[in-house]
Amino acid sequence: MAVDLLVVGAGFAGSVVAERMAAAGKSVVVMDRREHIAGNAYDEPDSRGILIHRYGPHIFHTNSREVFDYLSAFTAWRPYEHRVLAQVEGQLLPIPINLDTVNRLYGLALDEEGLKDYFERVRDPRPEIRTSEDVIVNTVGWDLYRKFYQGYTRKQWGLDPSELFASVASRVPVRTNRDDRYFTDTYQAMPLDGYTAMFSRMLDNPRITLALGEDFRSVRETVSARHIVYTGPVDEYFDSVFGKLPYRSLTFEHEQLPGVATFQPVGTVNYPNDHAYTRITEFKHLTGQEHPDTSIVREYPQATGDPYYPIPRPENDALYARYRELAEKEKGVSFVGRLAQYRYYNMDQVVGAALSAARGLLEGGL
After folding, report:
1. How far apart are CA 217 and CA 239, in angstroms?
2. H helices of the chain, where?
3. Cis link prior to 96 (omega < 30° from 0)?
4. Which 3-state string (H, E, C) describes 280-318?
5. Domains annotated on the chain, with CATH
6. pLDDT tens-digit profile of 241-267?
7. Fewer CB in a 10 Å sphere around the end CB: N or C, the chain?
8. pTM value?
């Protein structure tokens, strides 16, 4: 079978590139080793008809009008602002840390200026911000660091915050007002019919052929493509010639709760210091679905399994740089996405990278 483009991976990166190239008149094969499209964003009704995210919660948010407008061609939206609470010392407190978090935790009655002064008194100033520990203690001091961040980070990454790049902790802001939204992006919404439905519309083009449940190497033997877009782990593409890149994985414990209309007050509750899991998400908060029962998922980080998160450490970046050099020399192949570029991308960032990659391919004459 001869096509213009072979796309490896049917998640955001692969599907966006495939859609753009097919819309430009190119023939495309999209393959994925899983039996479904949508990658880790895949959602489906459980046995009680509750829409769940099989691979953990995916909350869409972006400041990019281009990304939002692009996806809007394939879905209507349900406005949704994600809120997260952390269980700390028997209380459910807002995270990111804000004015209410501090006042309720310590029994204070600070206003915004008072909280700024409080942080200034308790912070441990760092002359240079290099690690995630530096970010937090430099901002809010050691007690809040230990209560909200250290344990969660150790579970999530298997490493102490002092062993991780500052960029990890910088993803979660600290606020001095009462804003309890997890994200502050301009566009915050969930696909009205779910992610899988959105991906189905994206890939609904006669120029796109799906090959699901297929391995890249076997498909490569039967498909002749002018170009390949690879969205899987970059080290795997090169047979881990320099050794495996470290990734953090997850296991998910889904549970149905018959007769329970609401399990928790917000979409996600974090458990930084209790239990082996990091958080519990209740999907009905995210989707707005009305149902007499509810469904939740607990997340357990682990070192082995499907790769989810590149681990941001200097030695890992150095190893990736060697693979990136190979990737840049690989003719006829583009490496796009979180695993292929070994970056901690959000969903909108993956879409942006994929749109850019598709433009580059078309401008390059594919």
Report:
1. 11
2. 12-23, 65-72, 99-106, 112-122, 132-144, 151-157, 166-170, 195-202, 216-222, 234-237, 283-287, 314-329, 347-363
3. yes
4. EEEHHHHHCCCCCCEEEEEEEEECCCCCCEECCCHHHHH
5. 2-37+203-243+311-363 (3.40.50.720), 84-170 (no CATH)
6. 999 999 999 999 999 999 999 999 999
7. N
8. 0.96
Query: Residue 271 is which amino acid?
Result: Y
Task: Give CA–CA dist 39/11, Å, rounded.
Answer: 4
- The answer, yes or no, to whether residue 299 has pLDDT greater than 90, is yes
Distance between CA atoms of residues 78 and 193, nearest Å: 9
The first and second tokens of residue 40, run together, are: 């880790």
Confidence of residue 170 (pLDDT cuts 50, 70, 90): confident
Distance CA 149, CA 67 (A): 31
Rg of the chain (C-alpha set) = 22
Report CA-CA distances (Å) from 67 to 74, 117, 236, 327.
Answer: 12, 39, 29, 26
Tokens 């690690």 belong to residue: 131
